[in-house]
């Protein structure tokens, strides 16, 4: 074991023998030569902060598509200078990322070279694939009739949620899988018609419950008959229960310092991880991952190191937003690709460097030369510099888990981007204060849909959607009093 001083916080952290063995395992082998990954220079928390600063989920903006000149919804704010294309245009066969290929300039640093490439390749407005009537969602895949949900897949009719998979008609939820008709819930699996509850599995008709499994008709963890349950739910105002963090873990073997962990083995220093083995210093790890380190938002992958938002990958290092890869390094937003170094937005490519195609022998010779250059400039073992992120720190998930102010030293000295840009507030001639809204949903008319509601905490305006109002009526729930952003923050804080 070695003790290293973090280059950001100046605090000491440990590098274990297991860590060193992993670095050897993921060190790239080009031809006959292996290029070792040396010790990290930042502590695990700062490494994760840097990765998270490359992901914006919930901040959406209106801006003009730089290809069609039409108004689009984008995760990139209008004050960013690079080109942004509508996702259908960006993914079309008429657009090739090879058009932006460039030669590596050995008179410059890697960061300078890669920044030049990354800024010229047009960005995709949203990561929202194969979805229907779900325009205000980002990312991911195969959703229908959803609104303002993020990191959601294969779901229908969900609103104001995050980290949701295979769910139907869930509102204001966080970290849900295979659930139906739930609201204001955190960490539920295979549940039906549950509300204001945390950590349930195979439950139905539960409210204000924590840590239950295979239960029905429970209120505050107390069992009721069906008749008693439906009689009581119309007489209460519901709030989140206070969770015990120790409850957020189950079926853990040979692991240490893991929270929000379920069915894991051989893991250490992880947060929000399920059905995985031998994972270290990582968070938001979905099932079937193994042998990975320093990853955030990881799905069905193995032998991965220093990545952000990646899926179905084997043998890759230093990636952001990549799917279905093998042997890929220092690359952004690319899919179905292997044997690639330092590329942006490639699809189905092999033996590429800086978005240029090479033969296998040319690829190996050039990558060796660039790696040696990166070693000379002390860049080889580092994740992407924070200044390369296309997002402002205050709009990324880093701000949710590691909140900062613009005046903080870390923003000023560590090259994180920051902006005071805010989308224009909606204009409405009919505004109602949240404190004046009735708590009795049965008395609420459709007229509320024509009002903008003033958040009781921030003063921001928000509206109730028709789909949302119908849900509250059907399930005997009162309307929210605070803006969706506030509700999201409350859920995240309960889960930290």
Task: Give a summary of the structure in a few sentences.
The protein has 496 residues and is an alpha/beta fold.
Overall mean confidence score, pLDDT: 90
Shape: globular
What's the story with the biggest beta sheet? Answer: 8 strands, parallel
Measured by DSSP, the beta-strand proportion falls in 25-35%
**Low-confidence regions:** none
Category by helix and strand content: alpha/beta
Calculate Rg over CA atoms: 24 Å
The level of helicity is 10-25%
* Strand order in the largest sheet: 9-10-11-12-14-16-18-20
Instruction: Give the end-to-end Cα distance, rounded to a whole number of Å.
Output: 29 Å
Total beta-strand segments: 33
Multimeric state: single chain
Q: Number of helical segments?
A: 10
Can you walk me through this structure?
The chain is an alpha/beta fold and 496 residues long. It has a domain at 431-495. It is built from ten helices and 33 strands. The strands form eight sheets. Strands 9-10-11-12-14-16-18-20 form an eight-stranded parallel sheet. Strands 23, 24, 25, 26, 27, 28, 29 and 30 form an eight-stranded mixed sheet that branches. Strands 13-15-17-19-21-22 form a six-stranded mixed sheet. A hairpin with a 6-residue loop joins strand 5 and strand 6 (71-74). The protein is globular. The model has no long low-confidence stretch (mean pLDDT 90).
